[in-house]
Amino acid sequence: MRKSSDRILTSHAGSLPRPDELIEANRLRESGKADEQTFQKALTQGVADVVRRQVAAGIDVPGDGEYGKSMGSKVNYRAWWSYSFQRLGGLKVAGLGLYDFPVRRSSPGNVVLSSFGDRRDRLRFATAYSDPESGITTGPRATDWPVCVGPLTYTGQAAIAADIAHFKAALAANGVSEGFMTSIGPASCSRIGNDYYKSDDEFVFACADAMREEYKAIIDAGLILQIDDPAIAENFDQINPEPTAEDYRKFTTPKIEALNHALRGLPKDRIRFHLCWGSWHGPHTTDIPMRDIVGLMLKIEAGAYSFEAGNVRHEHEWSVWKDTKLPDDRLILPGVVSHATNVVEHPELVAERIGRFAKLVGRDRVIASTDCGLGGRVHRDIAWAKLETLAQGAAIASKQLW
């Protein structure tokens, strides 16, 4: 994994806006009106273009934009997660919507996840969440979600092989030596119905065993693997009533252990982990503080950690690194531009944010990044402007730090 040895390098969190042609190809394939060959043709061109645009914008470590993760509309906050439904065996589509799973209540020492609709932030701001003019949206709601009904297996070999082939060809065409590809983490993967495994912990380990095959495929291809597992932080909002920080850490520890189980034996310096509190444009007043989970994050066997640090709910948490020791062999990718606003950050502000982290953990261990994926969350023109200002801010910070 590259380090910022002579300047601040740039990357991002994964998802980038899809071109209309790819969105339409996805929509037609999902409706059975187009074959796989038509989709793959659109995907090949889309990945080639998105890597070229990242390089032109000044991104040093590009991704494939998560283009192989099906997204049939311009606004979509869950493609990073729902793609796994097509790559796992043992699932059955049920007539349940995302918000229809049973409401479960926690108690001290007995923390359980409730339904998506029972999130504390959603309950507190129910009027805003139900108002179509409030700006809180995640795109079209799915009416059917999967339930695990048998042994979980990985069936996405052809899909991940195609994703890797498209991306490597695009990297080579643009002379890029290092790129990253995202894959869902076990804790997030397991946030579906379970009618087979005896416990939530058993289910999350089953997800770890299944998804390990995808992790290995990405690393074996010579790419950087990024684990997307927002459930590590985001679950806190989906527990009702609010648990203590200690109870939440106990609840989350088996999920960290499952992820490390999936990563066992894989080269740590080829893995980065993305932490976030959920990318929807809501108030986020019930997010768990970074200070309460940073220790859990650092237990993950990854060489770098990506996290939200640019949006107004979490920007102040740069100060956590004043008294948190970053292990000597690790890097950080703080978000210095945000998915949560249409305002394009000024390059001077981006440089200021980078400088805070560089002074605390060392300039060579900071890679400038985004809070979360930009694709499906802000307009494509705004997303690309944010990547450009990210690179401009990194250039300013580099002059200040070297």
What labels would you give this structure?
alpha/beta, seven-stranded parallel β-sheet, TIM Barrel, 10 strands, 402 residues, 13 helices, globular, three-stranded mixed β-sheet
Can you offer a commentary on this structure?
- This is 5-methyltetrahydropteroyltriglutamate--homocysteine methyltransferase.
- Residues 175-388 form the Cobalamin-independent methionine synthase MetE C-terminal/archaeal domain.
- The protein is built from 13 helices and 10 strands.
- It has helices at 20-30, 36-57, 79-82, 120-124, 126-130, 157-173, 186-189, 200-220, 231-234, 245-263, 290-298, 347-361, 380-401; strands at residues 9-10, 88-94, 145-154, 180-184, 193-194, 224-228, 271-275, 304-307, 331-337, 367-370.
- The chain has a single domain (9-401), classed as TIM Barrel.
- By secondary structure, the chain is an alpha/beta fold.
- The strands form 2 sheets. It has a 7-stranded parallel β-sheet.
